[in-house]
Amino acid sequence: MPADSESRDGSVTLPRTWRPMGVRLAVGFFGTLLAVVFVAAWLGFDQQTRDTYTVFQVATLVVMVVGGAGVGYGVSRSRASASEEGLVIVNGFRTHVLDWSQIE
Known about the structure:
Radius of gyration: 21 Å
Strand order of the largest sheet: 1-2-3-4
Largest sheet: 4 strands, antiparallel
Structural class: alpha+beta
Mean pLDDT: 88
Oligomer: single chain
């Protein structure tokens, strides 16, 4: 039985958008898992150990976590959208708009 977006002859009705669900699930799952591990490790330290970290060290860690979250967001927003006018491809933070005549 064909998918809802496909007809019996295999053609696709437009407009149509494809998104990789596995990548989105992996980014969400492993990102959340990593955040939980970081918080648990930080809370597992006693106060004396926490006091040895400088503001610069903590800020560096925060910047790295925010950067990792940004990369995860960029990877998870990948998609391809087909319409009557052409194809729009989003990879990370770049968008490519192609006419059908440009595609081989």
